[in-house]
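Ops channel
N.P.: pipeline sanity check, posting one input/output pair.
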């Protein structure tokens, strides 16, 4: 199959992810509340099940456009996995700084306290929620996001615009996706920084490596949130 232009493919994938995530998280959440289900449970199910489904649909689209799986960088060599772990350690150092910037710019501390208070009651009422949150937000969602945002989108943009622009634009789009879906800018500095970190790791050592970085950062952050909420 003839390979189509990289930028339109990236644009479709980015738009598709945002539209599908908003539809699942906002649409299903409202529907769940109306039907008497716990919206938080539905949201965590979207992370654990919906995100992989979104990644599957967009991966199928990319393959239909003539893309080759080999270009997406899923090399699970031990060296790449180890470098992903080291990048995660560096990522925690970065988060320590960017969270302070977000707190000064957007009041991240106040928003985090409000979220923690809300989660405490929810987790105590339903013990399955923290487990589902850890699995969905900590592991499955990052894997799906890395396949789409670094494996597909960044690959397309780097091919078309070069390394610096490709990584930079992907990081900005990745951060803006969270802003649109979460309807909040409180984590913008952190999201931009992590998007750049994931992008550099993916370019140097592959998507498997950036996935390890992303999973470790999300898992530890999620576990910390659960621990605070239940303490």
């Amino acid at each position: 199959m003839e390979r189509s232009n990289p930028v339109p493919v990236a644009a479709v994938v980015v738009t598709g992810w945002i539209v599908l995530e908003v539809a699942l998280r906002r649409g299903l959440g409202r529907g769940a509340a109306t039907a008497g289900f716990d919206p938080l449970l539905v949201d965590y199910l979207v992370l654990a099940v919906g995100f992989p489904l979104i990644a599957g649909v967009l991966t199928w689209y990319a393959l239909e456009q003539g893309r080759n799986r080999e270009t997406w960088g899923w090399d699970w060599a031990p060296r790449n996995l180890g470098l992903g772990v080291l990048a995660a350690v560096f990522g925690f150092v970065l988060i320590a700084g960017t969270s302070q910037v977000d707190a000064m710019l957007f009041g991240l501390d106040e928003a985090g306290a409000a979220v923690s208070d809300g989660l405490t009651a929810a987790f105590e009422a339903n013990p399955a929620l923290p487990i589902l949150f850890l699995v969905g937000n900590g592991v499955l969602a990052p894997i799906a996001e890395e396949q789409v945002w670094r494996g597909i989108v960044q690959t397309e943009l780097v091919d078309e615009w070069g390394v610096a622009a490709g990584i930079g634009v992907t990081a900005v789009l990745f951060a803006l996706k969270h802003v649109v879906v979460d309807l909040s800018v409180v984590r913008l500095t952190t999201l931009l920084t992590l998007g750049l970190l994931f992008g550099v790791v993916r370019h140097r050592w592959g998507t498997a490596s950036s996935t390890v970085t992303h999973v470790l950062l999300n898992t530890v952050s999620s576990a910390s949130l659960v621990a605070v909420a239940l303490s």
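N.P.: looks fine end to end. The helical segments are 6-35, 39-64, 78-106, 108-125, 128-161, 163-182, 188-205, 207-230.
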